[in-house]
Design a protein that fits this description.
The chain is α+β, with helices and mostly antiparallel strands. The protein has one domain: Gcn5-related N-acetyltransferase (GNAT) (Aminopeptidase). It has three helices and six strands. The protein has a six-stranded mixed beta sheet with strand order 1-2-3-4-6-5, with helices on both faces. The longest helix has 16 residues. It is globular. The chain starts with 11 loop residues before the first helix and ends with a strand. The relative contact order is 0.14.
Length: about 140
Amino acid sequence: MANPAEPTVADPLAELYDWVKRREAAGVFRIIAGRADEALGFLQIADIHRKNRLGWLGIALLPEARGAGNGRAALAEAEALAFSDTGLRKLILIVRADNGPAIALYDSANWRKVGHLEAQYDDGRVLHDALVFEKLLGKL
């Protein structure tokens, strides 16, 4: 089954803390907060390859947090964290091919499209293609 039913969670807050701990253990993880310290989303750099100094970036924003510069700020923060704090020379990311605003953001921030993945994401109804982007970080 591609998308099994979501399991019932006995303690959602404990599950959330466990989820955050797993993300932090995998690499860099930050909550994206708004001006009133409300959570708007998160960024993570995972699958860090120390020898080659690269990692995979993920940014997720709540729908109401999009279009207000939060993605651009999160992307800049991720690049700075990866280069200055983590010593990475390159970030890679995958984005759904129909996510026009995110693709425009990556293009405007000098990310380079390096691939197209067919049927990469399954939302339970439709398979979605994805694009692969990379950025060399020594040129911030």
